[in-house]
Amino acid sequence: MSQTEVTRVKPALVPLGTLIGRELRSEKVDKPIIRYGQAALAKKGEDYFLIKPDCQRIPGDPSTSFSVFAIFDGHNGISAAIFAKENLLNNVLSAIPQGASRDEWLQALPRALVAGFVKTDIEFQQKGESSGTTVTFVVIDGWTVTVASVGDSRCILDTQGGIVSLLTVDHRLEENAEERERVTASGGEVGRLNVFGGNEVGPLRCWPGGLCLSRSIGDTDVGEFIVPVPHVKQVKLSDAGGRLIIASDGIWDALSSEAAAKACRGLPADLAAKLVVKEALRSRGLKDDTTCLVVDIIPSVHPLLPPSPTPRKKHNVLGSLFGKRSQNSSSKRLSAVGAVEELFEEGSAMLAERLGKDFPMNPDSGLFRCAICQVDQPPSDGLSVNSGPFFSPSSKPWEGPFLCANCRRKKDAMEGKRPSKPTISI
Known about the structure:
By secondary structure, this protein is of the alpha+beta class.
């Protein structure tokens, strides 16, 4: 391959007045109030979290605000968790076209989350460090909640009527048969730890490396079949609002989703987060890092009221939003009764199914933009829709968007189309 200078094409600038005008002409949204709380207890000190309630799609325009909340549960060190916390949000936002209206922005967000996760993983692995991290990454824009996750941290939604919905998928090999099949098909081995005498103990793990998870960011010492491609779910709440509980597995190993939601109903977010951690500690003891974020999405027409001095009287808004679960509501699915609309869900690990098929090109330079790293390159230096996989010419043609050479190699490695050479830690 010829050495070609990689350049970045500056996107055409859109006047601020034009962008604000688009927002005003788009669907008017009465934004909810966001209240949040955080609590944690450290065992190994590898959990990190991100709280950014004041992001803006258009810098300087408060009407375009959105919020980001995330949990990063590191393992084998803290470097991957810290790196993801510091870089993931920017990598996601860089994959969304500039000048997009709110509706276009929300529609592009699931794909941008995939690109951002993969780009963050590539950048971290280039550092040569072997730690890894789970990620549960939540974006709240108005009543729309988008959640992307790898690993076994979890985000649940508790809505009016006490209906609890899981917005993430656990990527534990022990519990996810589809992920076990994908890992073995990509060249990994799945099995339990062998001890003296040939007895197998503990949960299912991926070998080499011995990781219990099938998806994460980092983990250079494991095979590339441990992928950073997130499960993404996007829902729209009704104007009754809801509560999100985002937590590391230190919570979920001790409490079910329903138990965590029930434990803190009727409490403001800051106290709710503390109570969830306290309940997990009471149930199981401190066996792992335990981190919890509670985010309340509350109608702006109903300001928060102070807690009632009489516990029996639940006149505050939080009490009405997150009251006791009805005995007749046993469904765990997103409920029509709660008027929660599912907009998008996809969990495939195949980039061809997650990144679309369009080819962004700068008409002046003729350069294509990589769908993952957002670097502009000539088409001869990347992977196009008509070319076969770089390492597997016998396979069917690539049916995804343009990828640069580096991201193309990452794609093929994740799919088992080239041997990966991890450094195995003993």
